[in-house]
Amino acid sequence: MQTYRHTIAGDVITVNVPEDLDDLMQFEDWAAEASRRGPIALDTETTGLSIFSPGYRLRTVQFGDAHTAWVIHYERGGYFRTLVQNLLSVPGTRFVIHNAAFDWLVLDKHAGITLESLAPKTTDTKILAALCDPRQAKEGGTGTGLKPLSARFVDPSAPDTQGDLTSVFNSLGLTKETGWAGIRLDHPTYNLYAGLDVILTARLLPCLIAELESLGVRNVLSQYEHEIARICAVMQRRGMVLDEEYTRELDATLAAEAYEYTEKAARYGVENVNSTAQIAEALEGMGEVLRERTASGAVKVDKAVLCALADVDLQWNRLDVRKPNPLAVAVLRSKRAGKWRTTYAQRFLSMMDAGGRIHPGINTLAARTGRMSADLVQTLPSGDAMIRRAILAEEGEVFVSTDFKAVELRVLAALADVKRMKEAITAGEDLHDYTASLIYGPQFTPKHRKLSKGVGLGKVYGGGPDTLSRQTGAPIEDVRRAIAAYDRVYPEVKRASGRWQREARGSGMVYISAIGRRLPLDRDRAYAVVNYACQSTARDVLGQSMLNMEEAGLLDNCRLPIHDEMLASVPVGEAKEYAREFEKCMTFALRGVPIEAEAEIGGRSWGSLYGADF
DNA sequence: CCTCTCACG
DNA sequence: ACGTACGTGAGAGGT
């Protein structure tokens, strides 16, 4: 047995690293005893973060309580492996994990322990921490990482070992990326680090439970978040089919386009199309006047500035108000091709698993409002189907996308009890149509509706005329008229904003959402409470729908939640029936206000829902 | 590591 | 007193 001692919060703790069968039997005895006392802290060390990439390995599995950690070298196989699998399969043994979804998926994929079996036995300290304070560290919160939480609740010096391990990697000629796979399994710092993490997790649990108790956060909210985490982990494990051949062609096409326009930009003296300083200098040399500045005082050279010089709107439609500047055109095209290639095509290929699938990681509590985020696919272009075309439904299936209808506005109508909004919704009127008629009169066009949608949403979140006009492209006079009309028609919104801000000030600048979620406000932008309340409740409306989907047997079809939408893969012959089922799961009343959804049936590729013909 | 830019809801 | 859009992930440049 290798044994390490360390001090945490004044206590000497022990990290045991079993080396033979006798050591493992001691571990077994400890585990039997520890599981009777309470949940066992659990963690894994692996070769990296992309669980589904070829060659990925599970290296160690750690177990522990507040004073003792056991680092089991799973990679050695044999008894090391079977003992871990046995312990994780014992009925009734509970575990506490920090960021459980990651370890669930690692153990599911690489140790044969299904997430369906492990999730019901798990408490996730990251979820508990997010329910105490959902803010990231840079937003003024504690953050929800194990280290910052341990520093606050357990021991201020707890995070120091992290830096030690990075310097060990460096001293071995390894980096932050290669270190996890390359370091020797018996390296002392590696094992100490691995052991400390479970001890910190074990110590964090009672602190966070006490914190939640004192803040009055109900246990059902925590249980609900654990269900959502499990459901999203199932979707992440499934992943989506990548059209590899198409993606490779796309990569080549975008490379050629980027090359062509980078060359053109170079003729005007711009060596690097991503350097705003170079572009500004070259444009000014051509006689263009650049008036806009960024917050830090630099010349602003963004898409809006370049589009104006290229005589196109933000959707690249020709404006015909000036002669297009050829450098602006070249920079726009080169930057877009380059970004789309690296951020989408190449990233898809690099993240593809051995079966040709990609697995977007879902963070179920990413935003301060509780909104989820997904890596890899959250922000694929929607105006052009080229990128989404690379992602496919299952063989013999098609994509169905079911969207809520104006969910944030319906939530607002429910929360703030907005009379005319509720009447319009109940009467089956389209809220954005209604806004458009307020601004443009009954003869409004589809383009008017689109502008009105932006104005309507921006307005309720506190946007002013300038911002709303800039964001939506609607003329400023129209925006002013819309704002005046809004305040007349929906006076309850402003009143609710004031009331919610007062409530928050009375409880340490925290607004408590409809389901009891704590939403901290920034003192100097308390008006954001309207956005927080709507965004957060809309997130939980989607969360409730996801529980409904699992109940209806649709979880295996679900692929990705996207704020107000569920993307699903369904058998081509039964698409209509599935579409109705998804709509049903996303339809219910919120304080008497109907929440409704509409399914769109596409083809095999995700791009088919955005205009692609496949 | 911070800033800027750009993609989405 | 008045007015303020909100929330993400990701790549590249520059300090």
From the structure above, extract its key features.
single chain, 614 residues, alpha+beta, Nucleotidyltransferase, domain 5, Taq DNA Polymerase, Chain T, domain 4, seven-stranded mixed β-sheet, globular, DNA-binding
Structural summary, described in words:
The chain is 50% helix and 14% strand. It is α+β, with helices and mostly antiparallel strands. It folds into 4 domains: 2-217, 2-Layer Sandwich (Nucleotidyltransferase, domain 5), CATH 3.30.420.10; 242-351, Taq DNA Polymerase, Chain T, domain 4, CATH 1.20.1060.10; 359-407 and 537-610, Alpha-Beta Plaits, CATH 3.30.70.370; 408-515. It has a 7-stranded mixed sheet, with helices on both faces. It has a 4-stranded antiparallel sheet with strand order 16-17-13-20. Strands 9-8-12 form a 3-stranded antiparallel sheet, with helices on one face. The mean pLDDT is 93. It binds a DNA duplex (9 and 15 nucleotides) through residues 272, 274-277, 294-296, 298, 300-303, 335-336, 338-340, 342-344, 347, 363, 366-369, 371-382, 408, 457-464, 467-468, 471, 524-525, 527-528, 530-532, 534-535, 562-565.
